[in-house]
Design a protein that fits this description.
The protein has ten helices and ten strands. It is about 35% helix and about 15% strand. The structure holds N-[3-({4-[(3-aminopropyl)amino]butyl}amino)propyl]acetamide and zinc ion. Its cofactor is Zn(2+).
Length: about 350
């Protein structure tokens, strides 16, 4: 399977993230993407390609112009706020909550940082824009590749994307790679696209982007938002609205879910996608469902991921796989490669 590797990914390397009142080392480390690359090369799984560069305008198919402007200028604005900021990542510490003005973009950069984000766990680094844009190019290239008739494609990138929305970052995500892939498929002629999100966390960014649209069906298996990040979205009764009514399907599962139960949810998700009669598929491929993941609570084993890939193959739609989470660095290469090997085998 052709793999579009984001050669810019390592430009984003956060120092710390805020967790329950203390700074802890970042979980989205550059080694994640490198380990996947090494394991795929070791198995001879697919050819590596660099994506064609994209224009910033391509991002506007999914993101707000003022948000893209914010990301592009974020680092220089952060350093302009205080020259000493050059030596620390930007983390928000103030947010507009509920009744707030959305029509005024504040001059104060710390206020802008909060306006365009939803957590303090996502450091905006000097290289975040460069790395995220490289990832978006991979997702778009992978979608185009599938549309030329390939059996599948893989966007191997970090930072991940499914928590990023129309005008906000968070959950280690800045640009929504999976949404960009889905929109690229639509723009290339697919009538209806499904996004299957199997990351441990609900893809609040992807859901919110397509919530009122019938042409992109979002189906997600994730930890119950009552107990798990991103907390405020991802419940089973969120079914889409307006023209999108019925085109959003959330399958939340409790912490501690073993593979047998998770696999039944995957079968249900694939059934929903079959019924939706889509002509293209994007898979938000997170492997933080792994039993050894340091921030998650499902119990999938490395071998289980082979079956995950096999099950996805039964959908008979050439998938655009996009890497999302997975923080057990020593296992991420094997787990991701197992999904792709299970798919092509
Ligand atoms: C793409 C993706 O998987 N994003 C996940 C973002 C999760 N952010 C919150 C992480 C909370 C860290 N918890 C540390 C627990 C240490 N025992
Ligand atoms: Zn995740």
């Amino acid at each position: 399977m052709k793999t579009f590797f984001n050669a810019e990914h390592a430009h984003h390397e956060g120092m710390v993230e805020m967790f329950r009142g203390e700074f802890v080392p970042c979980f989205d480390v550059p080694a994640r993407a490198e380990r996947v690359l090494v394991e795929m090369r070791r198995r001879g799984l697919g050819t590596m390609a660099n994506p064609a560069p994209i224009k910033d305008e391509a991002l506007l198919r999914v993101h707000a112009p003022r948000y893209v402007d914010f990301l592009r200028d974020a680092w220089s604005s952060w350093v302009a706020l205080d020259p000493a900021n050059a030596y620390r990542d930007a983390l928000p510490s103030v947010w507009p909550v509920r009744q707030h003005r959305t029509d005024v973009v504040p001059d104060n950069f710390a206020a802008r940082l909060g306006l365009f984000s939803f957590d303090a766990g996502t450091p905006l680094t000097q290289g975040a824009w460069r790395a995220a844009r490289g990832g978006a190019a991979c997702a778009i290239a992978a979608a185009r590749h599938v549309q030329t008739g390939a059996k599948g494609a893989f966007a191997l990138t970090r930072p991940p994307g499914h928590h990023a929305g129309y005008d906000f970052f968070g959950g280690y995500c800045f640009l929504n790679n999976a949404a960009l892939a889905a929109q690229t498929l639509r723009d290339g002629g697919a009538e209806r696209v499904a996004v299957l999100d199997i990351d441990y966390h609900h893809g609040n960014g992807t859901q919110s982007l397509f919530y009122e649209r019938a042409d992109v069906v979002y189906v997600s298996i994730h930890a119950d938002p009552r107990t798990d990040y991103p907390f405020y979205l991802g419940h089973a009764d969120e079914r889409g609205c307006g023209p999108g009514e019925g085109s959003n399907v959330n399958l939340p599962l409790p912490r501690g879910t073993p593979f047998g139960v998770w696999r039944a949810a995957l079968a249900q998700a694939l059934h929903v996608i079959a019924e939706a009669r889509v002509d293209a598929l994007v898979v938000s491929l997170g492997v933080d469902t792994f039993e050894g993941d340091p921030i998650s609570g499902f119990l999938l084993c490395s071998d289980d991921y082979l079956q995950v890939g096999e099950e996805i193959a039964y959908a008979h739609l050439p998938p655009v796989f996009v890497l999302e989470g997975g923080y057990a660095v020593d296992a991420i290469g094997v787990n991701v490669a197992n999904v792709l090997e299970g798919y092509v085998a």
